[in-house]
Design brief:
By secondary structure, the protein is mainly beta. The chain contains 2 helices and 10 strands; from the N terminus they run αβαβββββββββ. The protein has a single domain, classed as Beta Barrel (Lipocalin), CATH 2.40.128.100.
């Protein structure tokens, strides 16, 4: 009897290596397997802009010539932005799924006529048949942003991130006007903005398939910094001609908001390439704390000169779009 048990035990012990060899192997990634954590991309950006810019027309004349209380001082004249196409490009990259960097450039130009020309000469603005004007506004923006995505939302439908950045812009305005056929003027302004930006953003996945995703994105930011301006003006009353020039630094600040629907299509079997498109709306509001040499009324009832802080504002809003291509590695 004992020899039979020895035979069975020996057979079982001999079969263990065979069973171990025939067992299903553990699932291990191939040698060339890589998690696609990093990304680089390029995109084209578009904004069909509307809004306005307020210009300190007559300010340089008041400071730089003998012409003083004969023209309107201490207020801004509004130049409308109408159907201006702003376009540019963005280079982007990420380290992992947490740190991102964007570098972008954009520019736009708009032309039109002033809608508050009469009030500069204490006349009725509604009598537009007596006023002729044309202007051209040009803007160029250079921006760099760093973005930190909060890791606690990784793997969920929701994502949130913090944006920090800097903006440098070059802005110019050129105005020509004619009042009653006898008063002619020119206004040339060039300014540079040096701004710091801070903002928050969120993203929510509406649909997430194997090769196609749809998300909504909402971003908001505040900005502030310094504007350096150089202004030259000319005004003629028949044979009389007045010229003025001024340089000034002023505080500018404001906010920007953007909401978009993003479509992402993964290309190829490896999923390294992605085509994305954004469609949405963007708005930007800016306040310029301008130090004006305005008119004041003295104790005797006569007019004099005094410095006053004037708030000029700018608004740019409209449909926003972006089309881009990215590569993961």
């Amino acid at each position: 009897m004992n020899y039979k048990l020895w035979i069975v035990a020996g057979a079982l012990s001999a079969s263990v290596p065979v069973l171990a060899q025939n067992a299903a192997p553990q699932s291990t990634p191939p040698d060339d397997f890589k998690i696609l954590d990093h990304e680089v991309g390029v995109s084209g950006d578009f904004l069909y802009g509307n809004g306005y810019v307020q210009l300190p027309i007559h300010e340089a004349l008041f400071r730089g010539s003998e012409l003083q209380n004969d023209v309107g001082i201490g207020k801004f004249t509004t130049a409308d932005r109408k159907s201006a196409l702003y376009y540019g490009g963005t280079l982007s990259g990420s380290i992992g799924k947490t740190w991102y960097l964007d570098v972008s450039y954009s520019r736009g130009t708009t032309e039109g006529s002033l809608n508050q020309l009469g009030s500069l000469f204490n006349l009725d603005d509604s009598k537009s048949e007596f006023y002729k004007s044309d202007y051209k506004l040009s803007d160029e923006y250079y921006q760099m942003y760093g973005k930190y995505a909060f890791p606690q939302f990784s793997g969920t439908r929701f994502a949130a991130y913090l944006r920090l950045g800097a903006t440098y812009s070059e802005n110019s305005a050129s105005v020509r006007y004619d009042v009653l056929g006898s008063v002619k003027g020119e206004f040339e302004s060039k300014s540079n903005d040096y701004l710091g930006n801070i903002g928050l953003g969120s993203e929510y996945y509406i649909y997430r398939g194997d090769s196609f995703k749809v998300t909504t994105m909402i971003e908001g930011e505040a900005f502030g910094g310094l504007r350096t301006s150089s202004i030259e003006e000319k005004l003629s009353f028949g044979p009389q001609e007045f010229n003025g020039a001024m340089d000034q630094d002023s505080l500018v600040y404001g906010g920007l908001g953007r909401g978009v629907l993003r479509l992402v299509k993964t290309l190829g079997q490896e999923g390294r390439w992605k085509l994305n498109a954004d469609v949405g709306f963007q708005g930007k509001y800016l306040i310029n704390e301008f130090d004006s040499m305005g008119n004041s009324v003295g104790e005797s009832g006569g007019q004099g000169n005094s410095r006053q802080n004037v708030h000029g504002t700018e608004l740019l809003w409209g449909p926003y779009g972006r089309v881009g291509l990215s590569y993961s590695f």
